[in-house]
Amino acid sequence: MTASPFTLAACAEMVYLDLPFVERVERIAARGLQVEMWNWNAPDKDLTALAATGADIGSMTGYLTGDLVTDTGRHEFLESARASIEVAHTLGVGRLNFHGTGLGDQGLPVAPVEHVTGAMWARATLTLQELARLGADASVVFTMENLNLHVDHPGTPFSHPDDTRALVSAIDSPALRMNLDLYHAQIGDGQLIETCRQCLPWIGEIQVADVPGRCEPGTGEINYPRIAVALQQMGYTGVVAMEAWASGDPDRALDAFIDAFTPAG
Question: Please, which of 209, 219, 246, 255 could form a disulfide with 214 given CB 3.0 to 4.6 Å?
């Protein structure tokens, strides 16, 4: 069987939903995939049990509270990032994911923003400079994820890939990279291959799901096998993670994801 040129991962929050969380992690790891998860302090997260699985947990949420756009929020953000680093070291997690602001119920921003001002950009830049220093000192990478405003996350600042690229590239630290989510990007402007090309120097991870429905590749309009070929031609060899619901059987969903990102030849 041909091996994928990428490091493949799957989000345990979105597959094997009939199983306890630790068992989801074990099932994903048994497929030879990295595991990703969201908030580490959620009631279903037994950190001791997760560490005992021996699974390669590649990514988790890197903050719990705060934002990038207010003075109070940015201090909360950095404090929760420090707490996340401690948990990351316990679990062996190398990538810590974050967004422009904290997300609450159903993915809605805790403090929605209608218009991102110049002062907000300045605060975000200062915050990310400090975050990059934290990451470098702790040997972890913080990844900033783009989101979509039209379907899932209205009112989230710095949601567009151009925004996350502008912030990350301005800091230009190996400890601060983009989590380029192609599901969210497709709902925005599309042009996914060109977006990958423009973002390539700063990508720390790529996440995927199909549109509409946010299910595995092959259930919607995105030609993920073609994107996989393009990424390979660009020389990308990093992480590609399925952050998607299984449209049916989760094993078949993971099969479809692995097949899409294992280009023939």
Answer: 209
